[in-house]
Design a protein that fits this description.
Length: 336
């Protein structure tokens, strides 16, 4: 396994120390869409476990704190959600078929049920006991799904698969207890959202990659109204994470941008190189992936806007998404 420690980051690590999340479990799971596999990196051991097979065109990974759920879009086969034990490496428990042509995109878990977006079907699928039990029609081309405050939030990009153009995107809120569905129009190409410590939603709009640039819109989840925003001129970020009082976004151009919370003010940036895809936060820092279908793929640890560690994942594997699993003794899995 090739490994690079950047000098500037090394000085940062020496000064602040690398936090250990606890003795129970600390794993970083990486979705590899070209290899159709899940890789596992163990930071405390500095080792990579053997990858395990995924489904057809894996796209996203989420958890309920007990299992890992892999969303497979199914371009090279059948769409599905695969259920894994969070072991090292992950152990397959079950495979849940999804509707053909639905292009499952992402998901979230709430109260024992799974909620999965269908990018090509404009639906939110509801899964229980390893089967689809219902679906809800939402906006066009839904992508990110977030469970928060007893409700499900679905970010709909507005992308038209027929004309290959972006219409108005929207945020949908679904209440599982009542079946009520609300929505908020947002702008061009919203893709994902995250929640901050004050319980506000940060919705990432990527823009159209050409004339409309990215932004994050701050939304009150109770009233479904916009509160503030921060723009990223010249950038089209496609991933978002929140760590403490900071928001972070990154896109294919490889510029990691930070903004303050609650000021919603653009702060600093870090150039990481083209091809960045995955972004996730946990107390030790940010984990990011660089995707390639031909060259080396990378997993990065960023602390204080410096690259603290870089782990080579293999050539052409397509490191798409990343999910940290942090389990502390006496507390179990911790979600960040």
């Amino acid at each position: 396994m090739k490994r690079i420690l950047y000098l500037g980051a090394a000085l940062s690590v020496l000064s602040c120390g690398k936090e250990e999340p606890g003795p129970s479990a600390y794993s970083i799971y990486i979705v590899e869409d070209m290899a159709e596999a899940i890789a596992t990196y163990l930071p405390n051991e500095d080792s990579l476990a053997d990858p395990v097979p995924a489904g057809a065109t894996p796209n996203a990974l989420f958890t309920d704190g007990r299992y890992l759920y892999l969303v497979n879009s199914g371009f090279s086969g059948s769409p599905s959600v695969m259920v894994y034990e969070p072991s090292v490496p992950p152990a397959l428990v079950a495979t849940i078929p999804m509707p053909p042509g639905s292009n499952p995109y992402a998901g979230a878990a709430l109260d024992g049920r799974l909620y999965v977006s269908g990018f090509a079907s404009d639906k939110l699928y509801i899964l229980d006991d390893k089967a689809i039990v219902d679906s809800v029609k939402v906006g066009k081309a839904p992508e990110g799904v977030l469970a928060f405050g007893g409700k499900i939030y679905v970010v709909c990009s507005g992308y038209d698969l027929g004309s290959y153009t972006f219409g108005p995107g929207a945020l949908y809120r679904y209440d599982p207890s009542s079946g009520e569905l609300d929505s908020l129009l947002l702008g061009i190409n919203p893709q994902f959202c995250a929640v901050d410590s004050e319980g506000r939603l940060h919705v990432l709009l990527t823009g159209d990659y050409a004339t409309t640039w990215g932004k994050v819109i701050l939304v009150d989840p109770g009233s479904m109204r916009t509160l503030d925003s921060v723009s990223f001129s010249g950038h089209s970020p496609g991933a978002i994470a929140i760590l403490g009082d900071w928001g972070y976004v990154i896109g294919w151009d490889g510029t990691l941008l930070s903004y303050g919370i609650p000021s919603m003010t653009l702060m600093d940036s870090l150039i990481m190189g083209q091809g960045m895809m995955g972004l996730a936060a946990e107390p030790n820092g940010l984990w990011l992936t660089r995707w390639s279908n031909t060259d080396e793929n990378w997993l990065f640890l960023v602390q204080g806007l410096s690259v603290a560690d870089s782990i080579a994942l293999g050539r052409g594997v397509g490191a798409r998404a990343v999910l940290p699993w942090v389990e502390s003794a006496g507390f179990g899995f911790r979600r960040f």
